Amino acid sequence: MKYQTTSVNRPAKYNKSNVSLVDVSIVRDDFENSEEFSEVKCTLTDNFVNGEVDYINRLMNFEVRSDDVWVISMPKSGQEIISELAWLAQNNFDLEAATSSSNSIRVPYVELKALIGFTSDSFAYTDSLKSPRTVKTHLPIQFLPADLFVKKPKIIYIYRDICEVVLAYYYHCCAIGCFTGTKEDFVECFMKDDAPYLPYWNNVTNFWRRRGNQHIHYVSYSKVKKSLEAVLKEVCEFLGKPIPSQEVIGQIKEHLEVYDEVSELKKQIKTNEELKSITEKELDIDFKLSEESTRKLKDWSARFLSENGFSAEDFL
Length: 316
Description:
Blueprint (H helix, E strand, L loop, with lengths): L1 E6 L13 E7 L12 E6 L1 H4 L4 H6 L8 E5 L5 H12 L4 H6 L2 H4 L5 H5 L5 H7 L5 E4 L16 E6 L2 H14 L7 H9 L8 H9 L7 E5 H6 L1 H12 L6 H11 L4 H10 L2 H13 L5 H17 L9
Parallel strand pairs: 4-5, 4-6, 6-7
Antiparallel strand pairs: 1-2, 2-3
Helix pairs in contact: 3-12, 8-9, 8-14, 9-16
């Protein structure tokens, strides 16, 4: 396994003072059937590769357990609600335990320490959790532990429509103070891979190709919105867990309402005093991309997908 980094000039609007973005290119030779994993680039924070710790190698060598459940997606793709559902299924739908601590404590981002640096050691914390663990990551397949494809724990991958992802990611970056431009500016940044975890389609398509593997379950977020109960039953079946009674399903659906992303984003932004006066009206009446931005994203996506033998309808 080898990797290299390239520092690139990022737009001024991505302006978090302690965040510097770098391109990380990686070639894996430690996967089974390594020829399937061609060189891939991912935009990450500088801390991944220029800190005191080599987090890339730490990721590659992270110890996976066969009874883990890994919930993987691009940012803002519905990962919170699916990871909560997976944790509940793994823990006998213990709603009391689920409400006594946050999802981020029970279902950690394994790479969080590498992403932002100033937090506690997410690798050590994840490793300390008792089995069965539920683990989250946004990393593309080439950056994940080789153990994932040796021990083959359950993997749930969530796909979300690119326009919805861009909109939610824009508001998230605004809320945490690392982006100060317009939605249109962010669309341009997104298509140039100028935000963490991009490019988008490489992440999505590499997992979609493997959706037929018995240990990988592919979920469309549009189905989550249309029929959460159906997704709940699918997840239980995939994890080999009994489907709860209708009464418990009702309680689970009520519990999962707090993971409604639009409501959470609105609340997050409205509590940010620097953004409140600018975005409150927009949030109330225009929580969507412009027609021009939507067209740009769809045309850009169609070109990539066509060149790689896909169409947007495949992923739904």
